[in-house]
Amino acid sequence: MAREDSVKCLRCLLYALNLLFWLMSISVLAVSAWMRDYLNNVLTLTAETRVEEAVILTYFPVVHPVMIAVCCFLIIVGMLGYCGTVKRNLLLLAWYFGSLLVIFCVELACGV
């Protein structure tokens, strides 16, 4: 009986963490898309453009498509984990774990 209760508790925890992961991915996607649109509308190259604005213009067009693609991948990974939890499918959960492990290693490599 205690084992069944702990499995239910872990399943609920995984639901909550997947929901949090998914919501964070959607929020970062929304902010990235908004910032891309905002910078394209506000900053234009004119004769009065400062050097700092030009640097922002040349730097951000590279970052935003990458952030949008990464967020779309994270949304798919979050849905994969949620579907694996709901269906109790070990293959989906293994893919989810592998994806999270790859994401963690990439974040660790970028942080160093």
UniProtKB/TrEMBL annotation:
Residues that span the membrane, as ranges: 12-35, 55-83, 90-109
The organism's place on the tree of life at top rank: Eukaryota
Keywords: Cell membrane, Lipoprotein, Membrane, Palmitate, Transmembrane, Transmembrane helix
InterPro entries found in the cross-reference section: Tetraspanin/Peripherin, Tetraspanin_CS
Principal place of residence: membrane
Record's keyword annotation contains Manganese: no
Pfam families membership: Tetraspanin
Localisation per UniProt entry: Cell membrane
Membrane topology: Multi-pass membrane protein
PROSITE patterns recorded: TM4_1 (PS00421)
GO cellular component: plasma membrane
Family label: Belongs to the tetraspanin (TM4SF) family.
Name of protein: TSPAN12 isoform 5
Organism: Pan troglodytes (Chimpanzee)
